[in-house]
Structures are given as structure tokens and as C-alpha cells.
UniProtKB/TrEMBL annotation:
Function: Catalyzes the reduction of 1-pyrroline-5-carboxylate (PCA) to L-proline.
Domain of life: Bacteria
Chain positions recorded as NADPH binding sites: 58
Protein name: Pyrroline-5-carboxylate reductase
Binding site for NADP(+): 9-14, 71-74
Gene that this sequence comes from: proC
Pathway this chain belongs to: Amino-acid biosynthesis; L-proline biosynthesis; L-proline from L-glutamate 5-semialdehyde: step 1/1
Length: 268
């Protein structure tokens, strides 16, 4: 367990997921985490149900913490950064930004020369199953091991050049939505062939879990695993070929690339 306190500026889905994941991992207690939001009612449940400190005052949250995670929406980022820059300028804080599209250089221009890390997790961080990409500025590298250990408690991490952060955002963060859309479609197909909605969803979810573990635990590639279940003249290959004919892989690839291009447009 770490002895440091964390302030999470922005108690939305991602900010609250990070807080819950840190507590669930045993790395921190709720009392070590302060979550902020302009509307206290929106995060009141995080105090009442989970025991986190909550406030509307970003400055007081920062003053009580050593690590500051900025988790507001990109449209609100610059206003918040300008509001808190003086509180972060005393050299006592490490800033971790999970704001999509805001580069380290942008953060340095507002906050000055201080340890800054960009992190791109996904919402599975709440159950310690995130895939989190990390990029560090020069001063932030001093905290590379400490920050990596924090996010390793919340799933898997990869340290990448910041130039790859747009790709990580689409594949690792948005990818949760892509996987869940497949899950929904598979369960709807299950309903059409006779399963109840509840049972169909349960089957589809377990399929995704099993498929992922086959790749991760066996250090395998999807194609050999697919070959194991595609017998000649069989049902699986018939189904797969129909999906490919209808554009299954192509549409997914195009969706990933479209998201990537959207990020590049936003950042340019």
C-alpha cells in the first residue's frame, strides 16, 4: 500500500473508475483519495457508498495530495489547468493526465517545468483489468517505476512514445466500446436462435473472456486458435465466411482507423 494521497480532478466515469480500482487493488484506502467535481451531487455517491473524500474545491484537493490525476473532459481541460497551475507550481506534485488529445507539451506550457505523465487507461480500470498506455516528460521519468506500479495494480501497462498515444487511445481506450459492441451483437444473435436475453449475454461474455485468456495466457495469436475450431465443411467456417462476406473484419479495421484519424484531426 502506498502512503501517498491522490487528488482526482474530475469525478466522471473514468476518474471514479480509477479511484475504485486503486481501492479494490488494495494499493490505497478511500481516505487517501479526494475526488472533485463542480457539481457535488454528481459525486455524492462516491462518498456515501465508497468512502472517498469529495469536494468542489480543486485547490484544496491538490494541497492535500502528492499525486494529481486530471480526468476532466478535453473541453474543460484548459480552464481547469489555468485555475490550478499556481497550486501545482511548488514542486511537490506529480501530475498524471488522462485527458484525451492534450499533449505533454500543452500541459507544460500551462503548468510549467514539472513531472508530467500522460496515461490512457480504459474503464475496465475499475475492476483492475485496464490496458493503460503511459508517456513521460523528462522530469516525469523520475517517477516511471512508481507510476507504472500504480497502473500495474489496475491491469496491464505499456510505456510508449507520446507520438503513439492517439493509436493507444483508439485501440486500448475506445476498444472497450468496440469489444462491448461485439458482445451485444453476439448476444442478440443468440436470442434469435433461441436463448433468453440473460443466458445469451452470459454465454457471449464468457466467450469473450475465454478467447482473451487463450491469447494472453498462451502468448498465442488468434489465427491458430481459430484454426482449432474451423473443421472442414463445419459450422464455424461457414459462419466466419458469412461474417467476412458481410464486412466483419473490414468494418472493424475501418472503425479503428476512423477513430485514429479523428484524434489526429482534433490534435492538429
Amino acid at each position: 500500500m502506498t502512503s501517498k494521497n491522490i487528488a482526482i480532478l474530475g469525478g466522471g466515469n473514468l476518474g471514479s473508475s480509477i479511484a475504485k480500482g486503486l481501492v479494490k487493488s488494495g494499493l490505497m484506502t478511500p481516505q487517501q483519495i479526494t475526488i472533485t467535481n463542480l457539481d457535488l451531487e454528481l459525486i455524492q455517491h462516491l462518498h456515501d457508498e465508497d468512502g472517498f473524500n469529495i469536494t468542489t474545491d480543486n485547490i484544496s484537493a491538490i494541497n492535500g495530495a502528492q499525486i494529481v490525476i486530471i480526468a476532466v473532459k478535453p473541453t474543460a481541460a484548459r480552464a481547469l489547468l489555468n485555475q490550478v497551475k499556481d497550486a501545482l507550481g511548488n514542486g511537490e506534485h506529480v501530475v498524471i493526465s488522462v485527458i484525451s488529445g492534450i499533449k505533454i507539451h500543452d500541459l507544460e506550457e500551462i503548468l510549467g517545468d514539472m513531472p508530467i505523465i500522460r496515461a490512457m487507461p480504459n474503464t475496465a480500470i475499475a475492476i483492475q483489468e485496464s490496458m493503460t498506455a503511459l508517456s513521460f516528460n523528462e522530469k516525469g521519468l523520475t517517477y516511471k517505476q512508481e507510476v507504472s506500479e500504480i497502473f500495474n495494480q489496475l491491469g496491464s501497462t505499456m510505456v510508449i512514445p507520446e507520438a503513439q498515444m492517439p493509436a493507444a487511445t483508439v485501440l486500448a481506450s475506445c476498444g472497450i466500446a468496440f469489444a462491448l459492441r461485439f458482445l451485444r451483437a453476439a448476444s442478440q444473435g443468440g436470442i434469435e436462435i433461441g436463448f433468453s436475453s440473460k443466458l445469451s449475454l452470459e454465454i457471449a461474455a464468457q466467450i469473450m473472456k475465454g478467447a482473451s485468456k487463450l491469447i494472453i495466457e498462451n502468448n498465442s495469436h488468434p489465427e491458430p486458435e481459430i484454426d482449432k475450431v474451423t473443421t472442414p465443411l463445419g459450422v464455424t467456417i461457414k459462419s466466419l465466411n458469412k461474417m467476412e462476406y458481410e464486412g466483419f473484419s473490414s468494418s472493424l479495421i475501418q472503425g479503428v482507423v476512423a477513430g485514429y484519424n479523428k484524434i489526429l484531426e482534433t490534435e492538429s
